[in-house]
Automatic annotation (TrEMBL):
The keyword Amino-acid biosynthesis does not apply. Coiled coil: none annotated. It comes from Chitinophaga sancti. The keyword Transferase does not apply. InterPro entries: DoxX. It holds the Pfam family DoxX. It is a multi-pass membrane protein. The chain crosses the membrane at residues 65-83, 90-109, 115-132. It is found in: Membrane. This is DoxX family protein.
């Protein structure tokens, strides 16, 4: 049964990795303005405002700091998943980050929103990836 998860784990890794990096590119404005070609934010300010809407209990400065932490995490997890470096750690970090995001969306945007954007699915997929025994086609096998 060895090798049974090789192709699915690679597909999952690449999908999750790109799923983190493309929104980061959107919030930096590298993909164009908000509303163009599916871009949600189009610039950093719009992303910080959105982050604050998911954390209304925070003042503006802590919301900006959380936006920075989320972006940093998405960059690190996205790259690690794409190149296959420390996949288990990246996948578990991805799970925690997306679960936090999904729960914030559920509470502050309404229960349907995280399901409309499949955030719980991404979180569950990240957790599943963390439990796959080996990772092929990457820098490290763990």
């Amino acid at each position: 049964m060895k090798g049974k998860f090789d192709i699915p784990q690679l597909f999952l890794r690449l999908s999750l990795g790109l799923g983190f990096l493309l929104p980061v590119m959107d919030r930096f404005g590298w993909l164009g303005a908000a509303g163009i070609n599916g871009n949600a934010w189009g610039n950093w300010g719009n992303f910080v405002s959105y982050t604050h809407s998911l954390m209304p209990y925070l003042s503006e400065l802590p919301a900006k700091i959380m936006a920075i932490f989320a972006t940093f995490g998405e960059i690190i997890f996205g790259i690690a998943l794409l190149i296959g470096f420390k996949v288990r750690i990246a996948a578990f970090g991805s799970f925690l980050l997306t679960l936090t995001f999904a729960l914030s969306m559920f509470i502050f945007s309404g229960p349907r929103i995280p399901f409309n954007y499949s955030v719980f699915v991404v979180s569950a997929a990240s957790l599943l990836l963390a439990y796959i025994p080996d990772y092929k086609w990457g820098i490290s096998n763990k």
